[in-house]
From TrEMBL:
<protein>
    <recommendedName>
        <fullName>cysteine desulfurase</fullName>
        <ecNumber>2.8.1.7</ecNumber>
    </recommendedName>
</protein>
<dbReference type="InterPro" id="IPR015421">
    <property type="entry name" value="PyrdxlP-dep_Trfase_major"/>
</dbReference>
<dbReference type="InterPro" id="IPR015422">
    <property type="entry name" value="PyrdxlP-dep_Trfase_small"/>
</dbReference>
<dbReference type="InterPro" id="IPR016454">
    <property type="entry name" value="Cysteine_dSase"/>
</dbReference>
<dbReference type="GO" id="GO:0031071">
    <property type="term" value="F:cysteine desulfurase activity"/>
</dbReference>
<dbReference type="InterPro" id="IPR000192">
    <property type="entry name" value="Aminotrans_V_dom"/>
</dbReference>
<dbReference type="InterPro" id="IPR015424">
    <property type="entry name" value="PyrdxlP-dep_Trfase"/>
</dbReference>
<feature type="domain" description="Aminotransferase class V">
    <location>
        <begin position="2"/>
        <end position="369"/>
    </location>
</feature>
<comment type="similarity">
    <text>Belongs to the class-V pyridoxal-phosphate-dependent aminotransferase family. Csd subfamily.</text>
</comment>
<dbReference type="Pfam" id="PF00266">
    <property type="entry name" value="Aminotran_5"/>
</dbReference>
<keyword id="KW-0663">Pyridoxal phosphate</keyword>
<dbReference type="InterPro" id="IPR010969">
    <property type="entry name" value="Cys_dSase-rel_unknwn_funct"/>
</dbReference>
Length: 384
């Protein structure tokens, strides 16, 4: 199969990731932080090393400011619900994932918060000018993705971070589509809260993610219970990361995330990002040449390996079914957890096809994909 659904979950995982994780599962996978025997200590060590590698990758000063979550959505919810109070104003954009939009709208329904949804520029980006022009006296937080999952455009979060710092506003970044393919420095970019999944471009397994929060940001637990620490106290610990890591951690998933980060470091983030960017732009140029194909991803200098498009007159979910069953190509069709973005693009009713790439895709696969789209467009490739 040609796998072009990496924005949902990367596949395949690097061989070292699966091999080293399964070896750990067979030999050392005990409960971390709960016991004093060798296997438990080894599990705790793997968790610590993963926290340390995350801190190094994103220039986080203190690894204990990082808490593991089951995915990016959980991390985003923690960051949003911990920091927004009655009468606060938050700035976000129409291109954000439902993990942000639904959380904000839920708080709005319960508390008197105000939300500003920014429209992007023609190149489908949000800029520091957008942010500064919409700041109010009660603006508490800016919540944005680094790269959106709808069309795969990056935002200049370093410039946006300069604005949020200037006005003493919390800056929360969703790195679901960028962590592992573009450098992120929380100090340089003035990021107060960073959220990311482990199973996408960090090449870990599903069920993994993390939240980083600095001293300016609040983080409140959403679950209460055993943490393996302060067991003489009936109250939830107040220190990070213990207060957020209730129950047994997904140590197998965390081990896979550790191995994924190590693999990325061995290849180089710049190399990974450049390969995906070049392949995405190649596909876009070829699709633009096909009459009757509408491409929504702009040809920006840098893209997050996502190409979104439609074939005129054909339902996007039907096309993805044909690509799967007849051509053995995996893409995603329909709506992409972003109703406001689809409304902005005029695709709320139709949705569109999203092809998303990883380091393991190549030009030969891209050409086969383009050939399949051409065949489907000409109607000769519709019969399954």
């Amino acid at each position: 199969m040609i796998y072009f659904d990496n924005s949902a979950t990367t596949f395949p995982k690097p061989e070292k990731v699966t091999a080293n994780t399964f070896s750990f599962l067979k030999t050392s996978c005990a409960n971390p932080g709960r016991s004093a025997h060798k296997m438990s200590i080894e599990s705790s060590r793997q968790v610590f090393e993963c926290r340390f590698e995350i801190a190094n990758m994103f220039n986080i000063n203190d690894p204990t400011d990082i808490a593991f979550t089951k995915n990016c959505s959980e991390a985003l919810n923690i960051g949003i619900f911990s920091n927004l109070e009655e009468n606060d104003h938050v700035i976000t954009s129409v291109l954000e994932h439902n993990s942000i939009i639904r959380a904000l709208e839920h708080i709005k329904s319960e508390k008197n918060i105000e939300i500003t949804y920014l429209n992007p520029d023609e190149d489908m980006t949000i800029t520091d000018y957008h942010i500064e022009n919409n700041i109010k006296p009660n603006t508490k937080m800016v919540v944005l993705s680094h790269a959106n999952n709808l069309v795969g455009t990056f935002y200049d979060i370093e410039k946006i971070g300069q604005i949020t710092k200037k006005y003493n506003i919390l800056f929360m970044v969703d790195a679901a589509q960028s962590a592992g393919k573009k450098n992120i420095d929380v100090q340089k970019m003035n990021i107060d809260i960073l959220c990311a999944p482990g199973h996408k471009s960090l090449y870990g397994f599903t069920g993994t993610g993390f939240i980083y929060a600095n001293e300016q940001a609040k983080v409140k637990p959403v679950l209460y219970g055993g943490t393996g620490s302060f067991s003489d106290d009936i109250h939830q610990p107040e220190i990070m990361p213990d207060k957020l890591e209730t129950g047994t951690l997904n140590v197998v998933g965390i081990k896979s995330l550790l191995e994924g980060i190590r693999w990325i470091n061995s290849v180089g983030i710049d190399i990974i990002g450049a390969k995906e960017n070049a392949l995405a732009k190649y596909i876009i140029r070829k699709l633009i040449e096909i009459e009757g194909v509408t491409v929504y991803t702009p040809l920006n200098d840098e893209l997050a390996g996502i190409v979104s498009f439609n074939i005129d007159g054909l339902d996007s979910s039907f096309v993805t079914g044909v690509l799967d069953l007849k051509y053995d190509i995996a893409v995603r069709g329909g709506l992409h957890c972003n109703p406001l973005g689809h409304r902005y693009l005029g695709t709320l009713e139709s949705g569109f096809i999203r092809a998303s790439l990883s380091y393991f895709n190549n030009m030969n696969e891209a050409d086969k994909f383009i050939s399949a789209v051409k065949s489907i467009k000409s109607n000769s490739g519709l019969n399954i």
